[in-house]
Amino acid sequence: MKKKLKNVWLLGLVLLTAALVAGGCGKKATPENLLADMDKNSKEVKSVSSNMKLAAELGDDTDTLALNLDADITATKKPEASHIKGKVGIKFGSTDFGTDMEVYQVKEKDEIISYTYIQDQWTKQTVDSEENVLDEGMYEGFKKAYKSFELKKDLVKVNDKKCYELTGKVDGGLLSGIIDQDMLDSVTSGIDLDADGMKDAKIPCVIDIYQDSILPARIYIDMKDVLAKLMGDEYEGLEVDEYYVELTYNEYDKADEIKVPKKAKEAADAGGGLDWDSGDDDNGKAKTAPAKQSKELGDKWDSYTVQIGEKVVTLPCSISDLEAAGLALDTEDTPGDTAVEADDYVLAYFVDKNGNEVMVDLINTSGEAKKAEECLVGGISVDEYGLSEGGLSILFPGGIAVGTAKDDVLAKYGETEDTYEGDSLHMFTWSDESSYFSQCEIDIDPETDNVCQMSMTRYE
User: Fold this and answer.
1) Which of 41, 201, 351, 393 has its CA 20 to 30 A from that of 208?
2) What is the rounded CA–CA span in Å between residue 80 and residue 256?
3) Residue 283 phi, psi (nearest 5)
4) Tens-digit pLDDT profile for residues 308-323
5) How far apart are the first and last CA of the chain?
6) How far is CA 392 from the centre of its chain?
7) C-alpha angle with apex 348: 210 to 222, nearest 5 degrees?
8) Residue 323 DSSP symbol
């Protein structure tokens, strides 16, 4: 595995300059470097304006169904919010139906509320999590899947800007962050883009990356073969002529604050709206007692130890080790029988009884395909949002946890291999020179100077 290059950013330069350095300081453009830098630069983005197109056409000897979606999408990180506005067209037999569609997702009193306008009516619902085009988990997944991509020799253009182009096939589970499934369900009568079959599939994907900023320019996903398999198993004689999603990133860090119009709130509350509140109350969340550091937890980052509650695991570990610590595989996100190819991995979530989430890398180090539930745990990542339900404490070596002060982290772990200090996020990485996937990353919120996210991987 190629080692991460040392930090070349000059202290005090703005984000644009940092991005230019990442793309043009003599570093060779490879899928590994481009996807790693794209992931890093994307974490610094505050907002994005984009366009999503979806087209599907399928049918048999008697009927044809065609779906077209063209929507402009704006998303911001602080505050977390998104706005989708576009048109949906559906053709089925002699029926030709088109409608305007608009969706706002915003946080209100620590809940994520979705306001949806479809067929001349606003509805309102509480959703479990926000899905938007700033999905950092997807970018991190692309980075880890760099071996799946090839770099096109010639540059291409997106929005009249020069771009690198990567082509390959990726796990369908990586792509769920692109598409708001709740929004699509409301207009497609159940074409499920998050089906287990999609998660298990290898899906053709094209990623264009702006040459100047090393940020996503366009992601094109060809799901024709996946839909043919998903639907063909249920409907004999069904043929799929087209099924793709194209997401084009137009502008970064130029969006205004996203606010739900007063008329949308009033209409949703007035009668037509459906408020599907889960009824959870923050006052009912479990309290997180300060964790007492176990003697089994290492002091140095490269001990690859993680304390979950009172149990300490050493990476790579078994799934049963996480289960013994009170965590269970979220099979809705990643079914236990998900296929993992030899020397490959899948991202999965493990949850505790209170609903806290920990993201893990399930790795297959054998020479043949395995089910996800038979794999090892090669990576653990946790952030402040994943622990927001309370009642779960996780410590990295030396007692480092979400909320630990930056100075304490640096005092414990020493000189970093890679450091990036942007306006909204500071990233510190310690790596083993012998393996790209043996490392620890601690992210700091510059507003508080405390840990907001931490991850550790060890595949060997």
Assistant:
1) 201
2) 12
3) -65, -20
4) 999 999 999 999 999 9
5) 12
6) 22
7) 45
8) H
Half-sphere exposure of 272 (CA within 13 A, CB side): 15
For CA atoms 315, 363, 328, 402, give the dihedral sign: positive
**Under 8 Å between Cβ of 300 and 409:** no
Q: Which residues in 233-342 belong to E strands, given as ranges? A: 239-252, 305-308, 311-314, 317-318, 328-329, 339-340
Tell me the C-alpha distance between 148 and 205, whole Å: 10
Which long-range CB contacts under 8 A does 197-201 form with residues at least 24 apart? 197/172, 197/226, 197/229, 197/230, 198/172, 198/173, 198/223, 198/226, 198/230, 199/171, 199/172, 199/173, 199/334, 199/335, 199/338, 200/171, 200/172, 200/338, 200/339, 201/171, 201/172, 201/225, 201/226, 201/229
Q: Is 146 helix (H, G, I), strand (E, B) or coil?
A: helix
Q: Report the C-alpha gap between 190 and 182 in whole angstroms.
A: 10
Contact between 16 and 213 under an 8 Å Cβ cutoff? The reply is: yes
For residue 286, what pLDDT band results from cuts at 50, 70 and 90?
low
Question: pLDDT for 253-285, tens place per residue?
Answer: 999 889 888 888 887 776 444 333 333 444 455
Q: Is 330 exposed, middle or buried (0-12, 13-18, 19+ CB in 10 A)?
A: middle
What are the structure tokens assigned to 375, written together? 């794999």
Report residue 78 as tokens.
């602080």
* Residues pairing with 252 in the sheet: 48
Pair of tokens at residue 35: 């996807």
Amino acid (1-letter code) at residue 92: F
Whether omega for the bond prior to residue 79 falls within 30 degrees of 0, making it cis, is yes
Residue 320's contacts (CB-CB under 8 Å, 6 or more residues apart) are none
This prediction's pTM: 0.60
CA distances from 170 to 144, 165, 167, 184, 245 (A): 11, 15, 10, 22, 14
Cα separation, 86 vs 203, in Å, equals 26
Residue 34 has what pLDDT? 94
Residue with tokens 């793309």: 23
